[in-house]
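Lecture 7, part B: from sequences to assemblies.

Below are the input chains for today's worked example.
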Amino acid sequence: MNDLTPEKNPSRLAKWSRRGFIGAGVLAGGGLLIGIGVRSGNPIDALAPKVAAGEGEQLVNSWVKIDTDNIVTAIVPHCEMGQGAHSVLAQMLADELDAAWDKVRVMQAPTDGSYIVTDTARMFVAPFTMNAADWIEPTWDGLFTQIGRFADALITGGSSSIRTTGQHQMRVAGAAARTMLKGAAADAWGVPAKEIETRDSTLIHTASGKSAPYAEFATAAAEQPMDQSPKLKDPSQYRLMGKSKARTDIPSKVDGTAIFGMDAAPEGLDLSYAATLRAPVPGQRVVSMDAMRAKGMRGVLQILNLGDFVAVVADSYWQAQQALNTVKVEWTKPESAIGSTQDQFDAYAAAIDAAGATGGEEAAAKGDAASAFEQAATIIEAEYKVPYLAHAPMEPINCTAHVKDGKCDVWTSTQVPLMVRTGISDATGIPKDAINVHHPYLGGSFGRRLEAVYATMAVRIAQATGYPVKSVWSREEDTQKALYRPAELSRFKGGLDDAGKLIAYDNIFTQRHDPAEASVPGIYAIPNTSVRVAEAPLHLPFAAWRSVDHSQHGWFIESFIDEAAHAADADPLDYRLAMLEGSPRHVAVLKKLAEMSEWSAARTGGRAKGLAIVESFGTIVAEAIEVDMSSGSPKMTNIWAVADAGYVMNPDGFRNQMEGGMVYGLTAAMYGELDLEDGTIVQSNFHDYRMLRMDEVPEIKVAIINSGDVPVGGAGEPGLPPAAPALTNAIFAATGKRIRELPIAKQFA
Amino acid sequence: MRNSAFLAVGLLTVMLAACGSAEPAPVVEQIVVREPGAPVVDAGEAPAVLDKVALGEEAFQACTGCHNAQAGGPNMSGPNLHGVVGRKAGAVASYDYSDALAGSDITWNYGTLDRFLANPAGYVPGTDMVAGAVRDGERRAAIVAYLASTGE
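Predicted structure of the full complex, as structure tokens:
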């Protein structure tokens, strides 16, 4: 087992879990995890009206409510952006509660600090880092709670919903609620609680013939003591988990009644609409604004210079946008020295050159790479580069805001509702407790809506006008004026011994964000490793983009390993398997992939296969892609994926996420690129920032391995990182052309 | 990897910093044209009289989902229309026209463009321009005037 992969240290993990949850107790150690409604001295009265306002509804604990119609409502703290989190979290809760699935509803948790997803916060504080410095461990609980508050960590991201909120909160809440219901029924019926069975939202005592729907004891259950560490089900007892239950949001998305941020139409509010224009180069401010023409245009209500951006408010969005297009703005001089794409990569290259053979910040080190290179029979070197990328979610960026009598209501699609609240408060001076963030479904996000700027802009406009305004960004604004997956440069040097074995590995790159282990080739047993980061300027603001640093490093590492395999004249599959001998889960995933993709079958007719394996967000995913190069440019003909997430809660939903991750990653690999000219992004809309189309995506076969007995992994992101390297490795196998720069398509134009 | 926790805190700080400045941001300039629900044209002021080209440019915005009319602008779903008046149909070399339009032998002028915009598929059956017909004759004339101005 390789010591570069901290998350694979089971003893640490067990310790972590006990400390963070069971041992310390949910309520004492991290009272915000679950059950705040039943913690003594907790503000249940303040919270109850927000989630159980209806007559006859009784709050059992803060993650589940049961009403008098016997409907169980899971109160989900994560947002729903198409990933299926709402439904699968309810599924996990309902299973432990033994609720009937057709009587389960999902409710978005209100934007309230009580719902800070503490486990998620901890993951963002110490992503997968179980070997944190010892001195800090005793204070972890305090630290993460504090930082959770500090960062307003009501976050949906990091492929975390199932493995944090689901595993440690929803299931526990469901099990605790079931225990409380049983306790209440036992008291009423005068029988031992352990003789009471639960099934389909019903309490049953077979010996006495008594049975009752949960609703009957919901009120009494709230008076029952809450077991802080209720026994969770064993997989053999699962009724809903592990099954492809239909998602609860399907009907509304099919019949069009689903409400997304863009659909916000708050009752009683007559909305006006704003279009906004931000600076072409990040950091620029408005020097002057000429709105002569806009003033005379139809529908225009107001034209605003807000210092860092300009807005036109009108009767309709279209009128606002048309008028805004005529507003001439002079901006301050850009501060960044980087004007072009070339400037950005020159800055990276200079930083890497300056770091030299041993400089830069250490990201990972093992053995003695420098000495090992002296022993190497063969040295291989490669430099890879990837461009800036936008998220390009389908639903335009938007926020509806109303500021009245010192209070603020906003309706917006966001992954971080509490951060939105803080951002608004900071920008406007409105106190946080006077700000109510309503956040309906997101029409895609991929990390785009992990920030608060667009909401604060909308509120500043609504505050200035005094009436409710829906702000909508044009597609061009979102493509050019947002936050971005960083461009990246990465240099590798590998040393192979006489047998072709990789004995020395050196990598230096320029942008390190998150997760910390993304750049570490930790799954492979390479005896001498050095991974370093050279500090370099980044022209555009950073954004987490689906799989974050894994999106770059997955491609870098798996391309370089492929290069090493070819330098060793070895089959890329066999070469990887040899370096994974101590990791049975990785071996099993690769062997399954080889079987599915008929890896060893002969390649014919311009077709060839490539593969890659990346572990990210706790899930191991290997992918193989077959390309047909007979037309001279790559056409994908087959895609296979094998994933081991420990245990998959909803196989259909998991497959959807794997497929979505792959298609998103392949879109970027084939076409994704933002260029800079004069400090400004050149691409503007889908015609020049194009997506992979249906006819370009072959059938995707996904196999799931439930290896069990390991922490459950994520789903939303892990499908992405192996996709690009599997494709470029396939192109190499077919043509001998090694792709070291993305995107691919323009290199075959 | 001792410092990874702090790196992640750094990330959170970056995310927070993106939330806005600590000082409430002032409104630098606020031009109030009218209140919501108020009549579109203020009786106290003469409505802005726009010439035909300017009207056409505004009307052309409806076409910009598929067409760009700037010199050197890109082809989108439809070809760049800069200087289209006076040239042959299917003349933008970098654009992949429908066979119908490429083989139509039409020269674009005020008359042919007016006919085409009124009913694209009726005038050139098989054209890829399946949307964007302009029913209002005045708007059509204004759009054509604007397009003609781009070639001047």
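Note for the exam: The domain at 356-388+484-748 of chain A is CATH 3.30.365.10 (Aldehyde Oxidoreductase; domain 4). Keep this in mind when comparing with the next example.
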